[in-house]
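EI: anyone free to look at a 300-residue chain?
SC: sure, send it
EI:
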Amino acid sequence: MTAAGENIVLTSEFDAPYAYSAITERPHRPFPGGARVAVWVGVNVEAYAFGQQALSVAPHGPFIPPDAMSYSWRDYGSRVGIFRMLEAMNAAGIRGSAITNAEVLHRYPPVVEAIRAAGWDWVAHGRNNSILQTSMDPDAERAYVAEVTATFTEVLGLAPRGWLGPARVATLATNQLLADAGYSYALEWNCDDQPFDFDLERGRLVSVPYSTEVNDIIAFVFRGSSGAEFRQLVLDHVGTLRAQGERWPSVLGLSVHPFLCGQPAKLPYLMEALAEVAAHPDVWMTTSDEIAAWYREEGR
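SC: here you go
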């Protein structure tokens, strides 16, 4: 039994937590204003535990605590990168969705105030980026979700509507626990270009598309892409969605991190891509909260 006195039904490890659906067989749901494509920018605002192994500049090198090079590389995002990104995105009139570890809210007050002033959405991203839900049983995970949610409510005066587990980790219980806690949507499952509903015993939780392919960690760290190549990746992705968008209105959730796209040599390419995308009249530049709200009203 869970702490709330209700059973959490864990499906087989071979059963996905959503039904199969072919994009060709769904109702046609154009976005607001008849847009063919919805684009939202997920800016991951993160805090790491000092001295623990995590994403590394040299992923195949030895981990030697405190790993000064890699920890400080990631920490650049909260000290410099996020402010550079906020300034550029504010100037371009692009609101982001701040996918934020709860510890950020206490550790980096200037970051929090700058994001609040910009009017961005808030998405809960666990406690920090070093604690994963992998080994949590349902009761422990329920308490973890409640703790993270309470921190957002305490500091910001609001409960976040969306959730992304650190490292995109989810357990078989996560979706039900999020719905029980009042969340509207989750971002871990990147199997579609359109929002969809998860299979739950009770309540409702929506998956909002959030790309693994169009992701600055994948591009810069794992593939070794240049800024120009990342810009072209974004433009090519949106171009294909626009071409198919009359039949299949689709979403790009663009995943970026201030310690990467906030770097001086990378940010101009991101902003060039966003400017070109936003100039198309059939593109809805939006946020994750707005997409979830639209789908919860229009979907099913």
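EI: The chain has one domain: 29-51+63-298.
SC: 👍
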